Amino acid sequence: xxxxxxxxxxxxxxxxxxxxxxxxxxxxxxxxxxxxxxxxxxxxxxxxxxxxxxxxxxxxxxxxxxxxxxxxxxxxxxxxxxxxxxxxxxxxxxxxxxxxxxxxxxxxxxxxxxxxxxxxxxxxxxxxxxxxxxxxxxxxxxxxxxxxxxxxxxxxxxxxxxxxxxxxxxxxxxxxxxxxxxxxxxxxxxxxxxxxxxxxxxxxxxxxxxxxxxxxxxxxxxxxxxxxxxxxxxxxxxxxxxxxxxxxxxxxxxxxxxxxxxxxxxxxxxxxxxxxxxxxxxxxxxxxxxxxxxxxxxxxxxxxxxxxxxxxxxxxxxxxxxxxxxxxxxxxxxxxxxxxxxxxxxxxxxxxxxxxxxxxxxxxxxxxxxxxxxxxxxxxxxxxxxxxxxxxxxxxxxxxxxxxxxxxxxxxxxxxxxxxxxxxxxxxxxxxxxxxxxxxxxxxxxxxxxxxxxxxxxxxxxxxxxxxxxxxx
Length: 473
Hints:
Layout lengths: L1 E2 L7 E3 L2 H27 L8 E2 L2 E9 L18 E6 L3 H19 L3 E9 L2 H4 L12 H10 L25 E2 L5 H15 L9 E5 L2 H14 L5 E5 L12 E6 L5 E5 L4 H11 L6 E10 L9 E10 L17 H15 L10 E9 L9 H11 L1 E5 L2 H10 L4 E9 L9 H27 L3 H4 L14
Parallel strand pairs: 1-3, 5-7, 8-11, 8-12, 12-16, 13-14, 14-15
Antiparallel strand pairs: 2-6, 4-5, 4-6, 9-10, 10-11, 12-15, 13-16
Helix pairs in contact: 1-2, 5-7, 6-11, 7-10, 8-11
């Protein structure tokens, strides 16, 4: 016996507003039902043999034509005739996003969007929200009974096959409309709260990653100065600076999510993958890596900048999802904005920008002590690749941006040159940090301003889309 919410019949929405309103109506009714039933369960008022289930809303279109109103766009249309659908979640976070995606579909295909109740259950953990620690409020016996009464997260439907272009629908099954299913999105929203100490609705559409606290300290100063000025809203940071989460996030907000989020991801490609796996579901307009690197050329000076236009991926963290043989292209809009920002902040124009910045391949490794490897084999590989810098995060962040269709870029600052006798030692590093962190961060923030001035439709490059692509951005 299964107890479910009252039936909400599907509708054929002819406006994006109608579609979003109906999706929110279904989601809110089903989540409220689960929360009420869970409270009854906690109070001992639920029969143990009774199954309780509520499901996500879905969006579906059936189109006879593969067309688009503007062939310059990289998303917003079905790649061929057929039936496409996806499950939806958290209209309180994604209402504006869904509104835009539905508007694109209606404009390109001129067919109604069906909104109804899917057969994908909402796990009770997700219905209770990011701030609820379910296990903390239940006794041992209740925890044992929980899985027999409520649906719990099912990893079999939370993978990234769609994003990885390996998903093959079964006969008669709808084609995917979005990169992520609702349960996959909900899982990431929970993980963002865990890793970053912030609910997902605080995240902005322009994200900067860094691997040093010095950058965060400077961002806090700038964020507090800019808060409530020049179009910005609040500056939001973790409540307790003495007990920071693993990858703390800081947000300089702006209306419509057009502000800047900065995350200290720590060191290493594993952290870089972890955080980008989850921020990707928020569908940001751009993310950048600002950090330090080892300069590989003797002609480089400490404090010089490196603008990555290619990546030698030796981090191996994404090999199973995106083989290292797959090229990660530079995105013109991001590259131009970064180069312009370097020139403006450093006071150079045109050819003179080369005095402080070099463009080239960045090698990303999973070995923090890569300098201790045999120089014979290592230097040959670096020389063949024409790499000009080595770090531990940039290739991973760019590769996951490519994989998840999020525009990406990298601007690093040379902090040492180990192949040429200039090692990163405490005194030298501290001097470097004082001299360069503020300028480097200013370049990153100016870049985000330039990207914000672009229409997002221009920023989401066709280079990021496959030949059989989902319609949602």
